[in-house]
Amino acid sequence: MAKLKTAVLISGRGSNLQALIDYCQSENSGAQISLVISNVMGAAGIERAAEAGIVSKVIEHNSFPNRDSFESALTETLDSFGIEFICLAGFMRILTDAFVKRWHNKIINIHPSLLPSFKGLKTHERALKKGVKFTGCTVHFVREEMDTGPIIIQAAVPILSDDNAESLENRVLLAEHRCYPLALSLIAENRVAIINEKVSIPKSKAPGVFFLNPIE
Ligand code: 4DW
Ligand code: GAR
């Protein structure tokens, strides 16, 4: 079976890109990363792509007069590589309605909270401030409205009493690196259906228990 030709869009560190690269390097992966695009020059993720022998392009939003012309450049590049699917991995530019429509059900994003809680930025600071005992991460299809769209997979991560934003970020990142490749693999294997804007993954297993935090 042909592998799903995937582009990963980044703006920075690229640790989720790395997790996707590692998954796609396994022989029986259903997806391949054909292109990495960064809107930020010098983003660390570009180096990760190079090390894996993946072509990367820097398309700086700053060098375009508006969002539409920036996105035309994105689309032109994506089309020239025959890209079929897009993963946003720490990509920090809002995509316009037109772009999201053009790629309907073909763009996913990873977000460092249990959506719909803590949309937007500074998720870990806000989760700590609220005092919730679990946070986590979410992989979801991208819709016009930011941080919405059918949820594919979530991981719950406990918040410990001595956590700060950095320790919590590190724990959530471990979960992100498990979830993102899993979500892409489920999609590439055609196991993800969207019915009435909800994801259904037939025959997937769920933990089927509850978790306490704290315990005793
Ligand atoms: C996201 C949402 C908003 C901003 C940055 C990231 C989350 C993921 C995402 C990226 N692009 C998206 C999404 C999404 O969920 N839905 C759509 N597009 N449609 C954000 O506010 N970015 C601002 C710039 C920040 C910066 O450059 O530092 C912006 O003005 O684009
Ligand atoms: C990740 O924690 C990702 O969930 C988050 O940015 C980080 C990127 O790290 N994304 C968002 O906040 C989207 N709104 P990475 O570059 O190491 O993958």
How would you sum up this structure, described in words?
By secondary structure, this protein is of the alpha/beta class. The protein has one domain: 3-Layer(aba) Sandwich (Rossmann fold). Helices cover 32% and strands 23% of the residues. The chain contains 6 helices and 9 strands. The strands form 2 sheets. The protein has a 7-stranded mixed sheet, sandwiched between helices. It has a two-stranded antiparallel ribbon with strand order 8-9. Helix 1 runs parallel beside helix 6. The radius of gyration is 17 Å and the shape is globular. The N and C termini lie far apart (50 Å). The site of ligand 4DW has 12 residues, from loops.
Mean pLDDT: 97
Sheet having the most strands: 7 strands, mixed
Q: Report the CATH C-level class.
A: Alpha Beta
Shape: globular
Q: What is the element string, with H for helices and E for strands?
A: EHEHEHEHEHEEHEE
Whole-Å distance between the termini? 50 Å
Number of DSSP strand runs: 9
Indicate how many domains the architecture comprises.
1
- The CATH superfamily is identified as Formyl transferase, N-terminal domain
Task: Provide the helix percentage.
Answer: 25-40%
CATH fold naming: Rossmann fold
Number of helices: 6
How much β-strand is present in the residues?
A: 15-25%
Strand order of the largest sheet: 3-2-1-4-5-6-7
